[in-house]
Amino acid sequence: MTTAHTAPITTETIAQRILVVRGLKVMLDSDLADLYQVQTKNLNKAVQRNIGRFPDDFMLRLTDEEFRSLRFQTGTSNSGRGGRRFLPFVFTEQGVAMLSTVLNSERAVCANIEIMRTFVRLREILSTHKDLARKLANLESKYDKQFKIVFDAIRRLMAEPEPKHRPIGFTAKIED
User: Fold this and answer.
1) Which fold has domain 11-130?
2) pLDDT of residue 1
3) pLDDT score of 57
4) pLDDT less than 70: residues of the chain
5) Res 81: pLDDT
6) Does an H or E element contain 100, and which?
7) Per-residue confidence (pLDDT) for residue 90, from 0 to 100
8) In whole angstroms, what is the distance from residue 57 CA to residue 24 CA?
9) Which of 6, 108, 154, 170 gives the lowest tally of CB atoms within 10 Å of its CB?
10) Contacts of 30 (CB under 8 A, 6+ apart)
11) How far apart (Å, rounded) are the C-alpha atoms in residues 136 and 134?
12) In what side-by-side order are the strands of the sheet with 24-28?
């Protein structure tokens, strides 16, 4: 998967670069270019030469507001200081898969394989959490009805007891 001159591509590295934009899990063109070890402008040129392969649900261009928010959250550079001159593209999972058809380097193939695996793992994790949350909600509703007495008793045991003794310290009666 890696050669002597390339850094390894890990699931953690990829997962940190997956963002949610407009309710979709996406990756920035610059992050993908970094993983593929190509310049962002070259990645975008390859996409533009094959624009028919990238419908709206594969690739989006960020709005000014989305990009400003993203720059604030991730600390990307400002334009005018060697930063971006155009709003970035983001690619959905399907768009990333399509990138493998327009980028033919060995690194791009390896990166795409790992990215696809990461998207699959994220889907599995989200599915597991949804199932677990649903099961827990079902259990709570059952137990709330069947064990209300038990829960009430536990709450009473957890409550602060009423003080049954005198406060610590001296008390004095002052008579006039």
Assistant:
1) Mlu1-box Binding Protein; DNA-binding Domain (3.10.260)
2) 44
3) 92
4) 1-7, 72-83, 132-133, 135-137, 139-155, 158-172, 176
5) 46
6) helix 93-102
7) 94
8) 9
9) 170
10) 40, 76, 84, 88
11) 5
12) 18-21, 24-28, 89-92, 59-61
Residue 98 and residue 104: Cα distance in Å, rounded? 11
Q: pLDDT tens digits, residue range 35-73?
A: 889 999 999 999 999 999 999 999 999 999 988 887 766
* Cα 145 to Cα 83: distance, rounded to the nearest angstrom: 59
Q: What is the dihedral of CA 22, 109, 102, 99, to 10 degrees?
A: -10
Token readout for 132 is: 């677990």
Annotate 131-160 with b (16+ C-beta within 10 A) or e (fewer): eeeeeeeeeeeeeeeeeeeeeeeeeeeeee
CA distances from 76 to 21, 26, 68, 87, 171 (A): 16, 17, 9, 12, 67
Question: From residue 123, how far is each of 91, 92, 120, 128, 129 by CA, in Å?
Answer: 17, 13, 5, 9, 10
Give per-residue burial for 45-80: e unless 16+ CB within 10 Å, then b. ebbeeeeeebeeebbbebeeebbeebbeeeeeeeee
Query: For residue 144, what pLDDT is reported?
Result: 61
- Identify whether the C-beta of residue 32 lies closer than 8 Å to the C-beta of residue 99: yes
